[in-house]
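Dear support,

Our group has been running a series of protein-ligand predictions, and this particular one with heme C is the one our PI (initials K.S.) wants archived with full inputs and outputs. We had some confusion internally about which version of the output was final, so please treat the block below as the authoritative record. The input we submitted was:
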Amino acid sequence: MRRSLTCSLVAGMAIAVTSAAFAQGRPENRPLRPQATGVRALANVRELHDILISPASDAVFDASAANPPGDDKAWAAARAQALLLAESGNLLMLGTRARDNGAWMNMSRALVEAAALAATAAQNKDAKGLETATDAITVACMECHRPYRDQGRQMGAPK
Ligand code: HEC
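Confirmed final output from the archive:
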């Protein structure tokens, strides 16, 4: 009996201390209001292409073939674009952008992995590695477009 009283006292004190700490941490001691949590996808798949996937992939393709980075700054820029592209693959898997829970996820993930390879190659200033990675990126783009954008048509085939 005595023991359980001590226990509840200690527990009660712990709660009091914790709530005091919380109250102090909150600006103006405002009461906690329920808040929306978690991610919220805003751009649709097409918009995500326009603002992120196309510019980032163009930059990575440029850095790889026509214009290999010539100095540290250019390599860092190429790496940044590759990371943006990789993260855009993550964004494709998010919320209503995901068309299904199977192939779409795998193909988005393939883009993440291929762009991550490019980021590593750029970090290592490895032009050959960047070339290999851009090939993998191109495959990831096309593999998803065939079923989900072009209804099975091969790229470049007559409409
Ligand atoms: C997981 C699937 C997926 C991946 C990966 C993907 N795309 Fe797309 N892409 C789509 C879909 C779906 C559309 C059609 C979007 C629409 O119009 O609603 C599209 C449309 C496009 C378009 C035409 C729309 C526009 O913006 O003018 C281009 C260009 C394009 N993708 C380029 C790329 C490139 C480059 C990559 C790789 C770096 C890529 N996509 C990776 C699914 C994907």
